[in-house]
Every structure is written in C-alpha cells, then in structure tokens.
C-alpha cells in the first residue's frame, strides 16, 4: 500500500546547502494567490563550466540550430530523511519508490499552485530527475518517468492526511497528482553544489543552466527543465566528481 502524502510542496524549505539562495514566496505564505535519454558527454575544455565545448558538439549534432525554449522534462523533489508532518512521516526516497509495486507510485501532497500547474502540464512518457531534498547533501539520484497524467489528488479529501484541504471540493478539486515509475539510478550522485557551480558559470557564459529553476525558484518541489538543461545535467553523470 503506498504511503500517504510523502511528497510535499507546502512550506518547502531551502536545501541546507543553499543558505545564500534567494527564497521565493511559498503558497503557504500566500495561500489564495497563483504561485508560484541519451545525452552528449561534454568534452574537457577551457571553459570553467564545460559548456562552450559541449555546445559545439550539440550544434554539430543538430546542424547548429538553436533549440526552442520549451519544457519537456522535470525535476521532482522528495525528502529521503524522516520528518513528521502532522504526525505523518513524509520521508520518501528513491529506494522507497523502487520498493513500490511495479516501482510505481502517485506523486501526491503538492500544495502549491505553480507546482500543481506543472504537474498538470506533464505528458505521458516524459522523464524527470528524482531529487533528494531537505537533507544533508541534496542532489539528483535517479530518473523516473510519467506513467499517468494528472488526476485529482485523493489526499486533499482525507481529513487524516497532513495535506488535507477543507476548501477543496470533489466536484472541482484544487490539487492534482501524477503517477511516476522508476527508470534507473543515475550513474553517480549529482550533488546540488556541483549543479550550482555550473549554473553560476553558465550565467557568465550563456550556458544551458543559466536560468535553471532549481536556483531561480528553488522552493518549488516540481520544476520544469528544458531539453538542454536536462541533457547537460544528465551528462554530468559521466564525469568524475570534482
């Protein structure tokens, strides 16, 4: 039986490794307002981000065409360490997902309007990074795929659930969820600190992570990724950690 409400968005805290990041308003603070597979391995180069040489390779593969800025991949945050919320442990790691029947579960408990809208935009078969959040060392640990598109989140109607919402009506549910299935672990753990280093470098040289939502809207537990963002982050699994 899947555990209730283990993925959350209401009151998401900043990752412990990111004390200097700008904190966006959360839905908890403004409850009635809208809120917020294969990749090319980047060759070693002089750019501190590895982006310039990676870009040349990608342009060569695509005939030099600029990719359209569209979101087709996702990043899903979940907490791998125990934390009680209204008496319920919201812990849910990638190992917990792997232990589910058919390695599949519903992604419930999102209580942020922008994150909910991202859930509703997800398409069958799209892939997402599984990101361990609010823990000693946050970062990307694996890949999942969307196996059922958005439908009403049943936990909003469960008075015993920590994410119960008395204002939501069954005839017009406020909150949605999707089903996700484990695809694979990343070849290595990709820590937030490493992704941030590339983000900062890309802000200087125009790389694909320059506007990555992990740093511009870091409190959101559901975040979209462009194809370039997804490909670049995935390529990091081939590199030796610094």
UniProtKB/TrEMBL annotation:
N-terminal signal peptide: none
Keywords: Nucleus, Phosphoprotein
SUPFAM superfamilies recorded: PUA domain-like
GO cellular component: nucleus
InterPro entries cross-referenced by the UniProt entry: 5hmC_binding, EVE_domain, PUA-like_sf, THYN1-like_EVE
Basic and acidic residues bias (residue ranges): 10-28, 56-65
Biased composition (Low complexity): 41-52
Primary location class: nucleus
Subcellular location(s) of the protein: Nucleus
Pfam families reported for this sequence: EVE
Region entry Disordered, spans: 1-65
All copies of domain EVE, residue ranges: 73-235
Function: Specifically binds 5-hydroxymethylcytosine (5hmC), suggesting that it acts as a specific reader of 5hmC.
Protein name: Thymocyte nuclear protein 1
The organism's taxonomic lineage, starting at the top: Eukaryota, Metazoa, Chordata, Craniata, Vertebrata
Gene: THYN1
């Amino acid at each position: 039986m899947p555990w209730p409400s283990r993925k959350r968005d209401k009151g998401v805290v900043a990752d412990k490794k990111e004390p200097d990041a700008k904190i966006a308003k959360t839905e908890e603070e403004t409850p009635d307002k809208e809120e917020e597979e294969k990749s090319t391995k980047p060759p070693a180069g002089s750019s501190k981000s590895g982006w310039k040489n990676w870009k040349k390779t990608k342009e060569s593969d695509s005939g030099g065409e600029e990719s359209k800025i569209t979101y087709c991949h996702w990043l899903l945050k979940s907490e791998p360490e125990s934390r009680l919320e209204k008496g319920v442990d919201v812990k849910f790691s990638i190992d917990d997902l792997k232990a589910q029947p058919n390695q599949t579960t519903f992604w419930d408990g999102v209580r942020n309007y922008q994150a909910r809208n991202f859930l509703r935009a997800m398409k069958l078969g799209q892939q997402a990074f599984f990101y361990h959040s609010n823990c000693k060392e946050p970062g990307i640990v694996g890949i999942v795929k969307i196996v059922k598109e958005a439908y009403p989140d049943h936990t909003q109607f469960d008075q015993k659930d920590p994410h119960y919402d008395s204002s939501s009506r069954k005839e017009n549910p406020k909150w949605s969820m999707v089903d996700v299935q484990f695809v694979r672990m990343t070849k290595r753990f990709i820590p937030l600190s490493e992704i941030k280093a590339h983000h900062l470098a890309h802000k200087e040289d125009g790389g694909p992570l320059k506007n990555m939502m992990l740093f511009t809207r870091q409190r959101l537990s559901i975040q979209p990724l462009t194809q370039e963002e997804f490909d670049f982050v995935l390529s990091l699994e081939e590199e030796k950690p610094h």
